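Morning!

This is the sequence you dropped in the shared folder:
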Amino acid sequence: MTHKVAVLGTGKIGEALLSGMIRAGWAPADLLITARRPERAEELRARYGVTPVTNPEAAKTADTLILTVKPQDMGTLLDELVPHVPADRLIISGAAGIPTSFFEERLAAGTPVVRVMTNTPALVDEAMSVISGGTHATPGHLAHAEEIFGAVGKTLRVPESQQDACTALSGSGPAYFFYLVEAMTDAGILLGLPRDKAHELIVQSAIGAAVMLRDSGEHPVKLRENVTSPAGTTINAIRELENHGVRAALIAALEAARDRSRELASGKKD
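The structure's back. Tokens below.
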């Protein structure tokens, strides 16, 4: 038997997911997509061989529905889907801040819902996708979600109560690193380097540091200490970071992201 999966609201992340699933062995004939603009749907059909459908058609046809629209658009999409979703459909939500209960209260009793927070490195198959099951989601449903999102990176199961924290750390996390690289590039220019050379130095340093963090098994404090020699350049830089409260600012920033995720769940838009 085939298992049809529909990606609803196929933007950049939805397209990355489609592409990853196909590379992982999913048949394009088993993948359905919806898009707001007809020309976007046709573009995806031509590029991947997937089938464009309407949202109600996806709900009637697919075994798994992956909802990738923005949090503020989820209510409208769900209103359109509810009359057409049987209770045996698996609903996977990728919307930040929206709990599984939001779907369970609106869908047929017993409908399984899985909440996933992924991030933009899905575009390069290096996503961190955090997965939580709703009231009716079984281990099999969670494993199926892991199979899908594992096509574009790493997956991690957490209790749903931890999803807002995960959104702050990994969902928004790539933006923090891009922000840091932007600031360091500006510093490199200030120090007399051309922008392209500063960028190359920083990006490769970031890649190397990330691989060391992933593969060495060492605590980040130990890795930092290995670079920080007595009275050297690094300790002087670290001192300035501490003097300017960078650590405290990061903690406050992640708390703000966590709080905004909670606000999205309550329906607050601004």
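Headline: The first strand starts at residue 5 and ends at 8.

More detail when I'm at my desk.
O.
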